[in-house]
Design goal:
Blueprint: E1 17-18, E2 45-47, H1 66-72, H2 75-82, E3 86-88, H3 103-129, H4 140-153, E4 162-163, H5 166-173, H6 177-189, E5 193-197, E6 200-201, H7 204-212, E7 219-220, E8 223-226, E9 232-233, E10 238-239, E11 242-243, H8 260-264, H9 282-302, H10 316-328, H11 333-347, H12 356-365, H13 373-403, H14 412-452
Antiparallel strand pairs: 1-9, 2-3, 4-8, 5-8, 6-7, 10-11
Helix pairs in contact: 3-4, 3-6, 4-5, 4-6, 9-10, 9-11, 10-12
Length: 453
């Protein structure tokens, strides 16, 4: 993943804009805070791990085989996967939050510069918000210590999912819990960290699910996303009836370096080059058609309900080169989901790839693209249908063979049998009529006796 860009989450990539700090005073509305607040809280969904067969409660990792534990990465990794309940934030939780460029750059440059620039502005707000509990401000040394602890617990590539409680940070840094609270509040006010989910106690059902797998935790720590100081905003800056574009996130407003394509690939500047035209050669048309088929297969795959969530990290345009060869051989979304499910059943692990495109490309390289799974299923169905037709023909031939020696319909035996059946039916009708008349007479006698009484 390229660390030098500030791109928002894929949920809101079409409507988010990166606005420079120099443009902040010109905005008609202040940038909107995207995290969790007291009035708009995000609770998340607790996800219980897989329960091993034969276990009702307790640690599930005790029933795993040694080879499977080694495949998971050791006893501790197996215990984290099978013996702890995780909290899923849901889709769009990080929408509008930019990515960082690394832990060291965020702590030493972003946080330090933001503190030096804006601490005097946020200190009155920090004192007012924490007057009843923590009180006072916080030093740069404490803020950097808390920021370093939070950065070590965040995702390496994105800076998200920093889940540390106040007690854990205090134990790591040696600071007091009140100081840690003020430092985290300062990071939030400096707009270099966003509290995506506020810490809370687990509900009764969540505690019962945790105890069943041996997890004795009673609460959820806050989930933070660490990002650069430049906010992501949905507002637009309109000047003289036209919408002003956002500046480059790395270069600012006034720096306009030459394009790399001008220095490396061509002698003409980008501004003087002609607009691209679609290819008119047979090779270009065929290539464009293959790309279109790959994008179409990717769009249908991403719209399928069986498609895993990690596949939706990329758009159909990004998946097009990966699925181009499969689309040429007539693969369907069900075929892609089938090979993913087969790999999961064979390895007994739910796939959670760090790079989904590389994982799917590797799976497709293991397959024979000329024979997609649905083709084999169609062949098996055709063979079953042919077997059923053959069995029906055999049964029909046997029936004709059995009936070949049967008597004709107008033979004496068949005529006598029909006469006997008709006589039996007539006697049955007479017997039913006699029974009904006897019942009626008996009912009449009972009614007369009742009237006498």
């Amino acid at each position: 993943m390229f660390q030098g860009t500030l791109r928002p989450d894929t949920v809101s990539i079409n409507s988010e804009r990166v606005v420079s700090r120099l443009h902040a005073p010109q905005l008609q509305h202040p940038p909107r805070y995207r995290g969790s607040t007291c009035t708009n809280r995000r609770r998340g969904t607790a996800r219980a791990p897989y329960t091993a067969p034969g276990h009702v409660c307790g640690h599930q990792c005790g029933s795993l085989t040694p080879s499977f534990i080694r495949a998971l990465g050791g006893r501790e990794a197996a215990c984290r996967r099978y013996c702890s309940v995780s909290l899923d934030l849901g889709d769009g939780a990080h929408g509008g939050i930019a990515l960082w460029r690394g832990a060291q750059q965020w702590v030493e440059i972003v946080v330090r510069c933001a503190y030096s620039t804006d601490y005097m502005r946020i200190r009155p707000i920090l004192v007012r918000s924490s007057a009843s509990s923590t009180g006072g401000g916080v030093s740069l040394k404490s803020v950097l210590a808390v920021a370093g602890a939070m950065a070590n617990a965040a995702d390496y590539d994105t800076g998200r999912n920093s889940r540390l409680s106040v007690q854990s940070i205090a134990l790591t840094t040696g600071l007091g819990e009140r100081t840690v609270q003020r430092a985290r509040q300062a990071l939030k006010l400096l707009r270099v960290a966003t509290e995506v989910l506020r810490g809370r106690q687990r509900t009764k059902h969540e505690r019962l699910a945790s105890w069943r797998v041996g997890d004795r935790s009673r609460g959820w720590a806050s989930v933070w996303a660490l990002h650069p100081a430049k906010p992501v905003d949905r507002t637009r800056v309109v000047d003289a009836g036209s919408i002003k574009m956002a500046p480059h996130p790395r270069r600012g407003l006034f720096s306009s370096p030459n394009s790399r394509r001008e220095l490396v690939n061509t002698k003409k500047p980008v501004e003087k080059r002609a607009a691209p035209r679609p290819a008119t050669t047979k090779r270009g048309i065929a290539k464009r058609e293959r790309e279109r088929q790959g994008a179409l297969l990717a769009a249908r795959w991403l719209g399928d309900a069986r498609t895993p969530r990690w596949a939706r990290r990329h758009t159909s345009r990004g998946w097009a080169p990966v699925l181009r060869a499969a689309a040429e051989h007539g693969w369907t979304p069900d075929d892609l989901n089938t090979i993913v499910d087969e790999w999961a059943r064979a390895n007994r692990v739910s796939p959670m790839p760090h790079t989904p495109m590389a994982f799917v490309r590797w799976l497709l390289n293991q397959q024979d693209l000329a024979f997609p799974p649905h083709l084999l299923v169609d062949i098996a169905r055709a063979q079953d249908a042919e077997d059923r037709k053959r069995q029906a023909r055999v049964r029909e031939a046997e029936r004709h063979h059995r009936n070949a020696a049967a008597a004709p319909p107008d033979s004496a035996a068949r005529t006598t049998a029909r006469a006997v059946v008709q006589q039996a039916a007539a006697r049955a009708r007479q017997r039913r009529s006699l029974d009904r008349s006897q019942d009626l007479s008996h009912l009449t006698t009972i009614v007369e006796r009742a009237r006498r009484w």
